[in-house]
Structures are given as C-alpha cells and as structure tokens.
Predict the structure.
Amino acid sequence: MNARAQLPDLSHLWMPFTANKQFKAQPRLLASAKGMYYTSADGRQILDGTAGLWCVNAGHCREEIVSAIARQAGEMDYAPGFQLGHPLAFEAATAVAGLMPAGLDRVFFTNSGSESVDTALKIALAYHRARGEGQRTRLIGRERGYHGVGFGGISVGGISTNRKTFSGALLPAVDHLPHTHNLEKNAYSKGQPAWGAHLAEELERIIALHDASTIAAVVVEPMAGSTGVLVPPVGYLEKLREITAKHGILLIFDEVITAYGRLGEATAAHYFGVTPDLITMAKGVSNAAIPAGAVAVKREVHDAIVNGPQGGIEFFHGYTYSAHPLAAAAILATLDIYRRDDLFGRARKLSGAFQEAAHSLKGAPHVIDVRNIGLVAGIELAPRAGAPGARASEVFQKCFDSGLMVRYTGDIIAVSPPLIIDEAQIGQIFDQIGKVLKEVA
Ligand code: PXG
Ligand code: PLP
C-alpha cells in the first residue's frame, strides 16, 4: 500500500516491449543494483538471473566503470565523431578489436544492438558495391531470429509479431533460413544438439532460387537468445560458413547477446571455432552501464570500402553518438574487468555446474525441455491450453515476487546471469524456479 502511494506518475512513459496497461495496473519497479542483486522499489533484494537484459555481464555498478564514466563526464562530456575524434574512441576500438577473432580488427561504433545490425547490413551492401557487385542486395536471415527493431533488423528478423504491423515497409529483398528448434529431435540436449546441421543446407536452396549474384549477406545469431535459447546444432554454423564463403556471400554473426563471455569465450565465433566476416555487439561491451554497441569487421571488408573507388567520405553512415566519450570510457573499463577478473574463463568453469543445475528441472511440473550452453539456459514449458505464454508469465511474476529475476518469451524461461555468479547462487536460481513451477497451474 505504502509502496503504491510513493509511485511516480506512470501515465506518460510508453514502455518498450511491455504490456503497458497490465504493467501500470501492477507495476514492478527497481530502485538500485549492486553485484548480483537488484533492490526493488519496495526494498526487496532480487537475485539477477538475467544480467538485466542479457547485458550486465560483470555484475552491477562496478566501481571501475562507474568512476571511468564519472571522470569522463567531467573532463569532456561529448565530442563530435564526424571529421573529428578523441583518443578514447580509438583506444576503445583497439580494445574491442583485441578481443575479436583474428582478422576482425576494424570497429564501427553504435549505441545499441539494433543500430549495430543495421550498420552491419549497410556495410555488407557497401562492400559489394565497392567491389563492383552492387546487384548483391539480398539479405538472408532466419526464422525465430531477433536482430533488434530497426527496419533492417526486423526485415531479416524472424519474429512475426515484430514484423506484421510493418509488413508493407520491410526491406524488399530478404529471405529466411528455417530455424533449428525441434523438440522431438533435440529435447534436453546438453550443449549443442546433435540433430539439425542439415538445416544449414537450406541456404543452398535459397541461393539456387535467387542466385548468389543477388545475395549480399547471411545474418544469424550463433545462439538465438531472445526467441528462447536456441543452441546451434553440431556442425550447423560450420556449414553456413562453408556455403557463404563458396558463394562470395558475407556471413554476419549477431553477437549482441553472445559476445563478452556468455558462452565462456569473448565471442561465440571463438566458442564454435567459426569466423564470420562481421560481428555485431552491444550489451556486454559496456556492461550496459552506458548505451554502446559496435560492429567488428574483417579487415578486407573494411579495406574494400575505405580503400575503394569512393572519394571523400567512404561510408555514408554514422550516429551522433558513435564512440560517445562516456561509452568509450565505459567500454575500456568494462573490457579491463573482463580481462583482469578472467570473467570469460569463470563462465567457462561454471558452465558444467550451471548445466547440471539447469537440467535438474527435467521432470519438474510443466517442463518439456531444458537446453543450455555456457551460462545461458532455456526452460521450455508446456503452454496452458488456450493461453500461450500465460504459464511462463506467471512463473516470471512469482519468481520476481520471491526475489529472483528471470526472463520469459512465449512459454520459455531464460536464465543468463552475470558472469560473477557463484555456484551457490546458480543452485538458488534453479531451486527457486523448481519451487515456483510446483505452485503454478
Ligand atoms: N540482436 C540481438 C541478437 C539481440 O539479442 C538486438 C540485436 C538489439 O539490441 P538493442 O540494444 O537494440 O535492444 C538484441 C537485443 C530478451 C531481450 O529478453 C533481448 C534483447 C533485447 C531486449 C530483451 O530476450 N536483445
Ligand atoms: N533526425 C534528425 C532531425 C537529426 O538531425 C539527426 C542527427 O543529426 C538524427 C535524426 C539522427 O540522430 P542520431 O545521430 O542520434 O542517430
């Protein structure tokens, strides 16, 4: 009652990806955060099982990041990035490049994952054009792919709810690979599922249909996060790489979720041993302390554009806030922490215990699949008859009420904690979910 009385006016804010009316009738407000925990506005400690929205990989309010941002805000709040620069922007690009797979050492800064995706798609088109193949404009995404909310991202994305309202305005030259999710073949896989590599061969069919000479790029999340933790089948990404290389098509890994330790390596490209031509990132690059994103680009791709025929400005693209000084400071401090604390190694070491804890939910009420990789797990529930998503939504609410933050999409619960988590907290997360599952109808 008191908490309700202290609430701010909720009417003006149009909340993103939120059931606004429902939320405002029953608000969930967070007030502060430290390490593995949020504190809710009504003063409860909430264990962060999702690293915010898959982004606070080093844990909340890290002193070094906070002070780096504060220092930079006092020294130079903003610097134009078009035809001018500042040293931290170059240092941040060098630090990002140093964590990318060999060869992807040219870095374009953005402010979000959505901007990174649209930037990467534009780089792909500019690359082919600079090489005299301007007819390569088609982009291939995948069903159940999430690539943010820009027009490019929703066009290559494969989520119908994010597309249908805008269907008349999507990019015209797009096609989609089939998704790889199949419970009959792959339920309860630990790590990569054994079945499904052949689905990458669908790319050959799509290429035969449109002709390789019209296709600029294939974009996939190496592990699809938002649509429910879809782990790539063994051999699948390798096959995509082989086919794209054979046809001169660029391969873009959208690593907005997977980069910076989620799988126990700097990138999913490292983890799977498959090197794309471009990697999009955001979230973990700045530990989400300041909005930041980037695209890492293979040097040949960069050089084809920057050393290509276009005089003057080589690439007509950029954001007011590309390499914002506060973002550059946050990125440098964040990447320092990842290295100093070996957080990717920590995630790798904990992934076995995490896997076992996640799979302990096999047999719990409503559970029809548990899947995992690195420090991410998806727990799929049987939908309630006639009310898809209702059961997971209730699990989310009950977890929140009892001090645990999880994510849900459809009837899938996702767990992706900060990499600073310990084994006891891992146990706590899955025990708590197990308890809640017994309480929901
Ligand atoms: N690509 C991928 C692979 C993503 O996961 C984006 C692009 C877009 O990033 P921005 O920064 O523009 O939101 C994302 C973002 C969820 C959830 O709960 C996932 C994302 C964002 C918010 C919620 O699954 N992914
Ligand atoms: N709209 C207008 C009218 C602008 O002037 C600008 C940038 O100058 C933008 C959009 C793009 O904003 P941003 O660079 O922050 O993405």
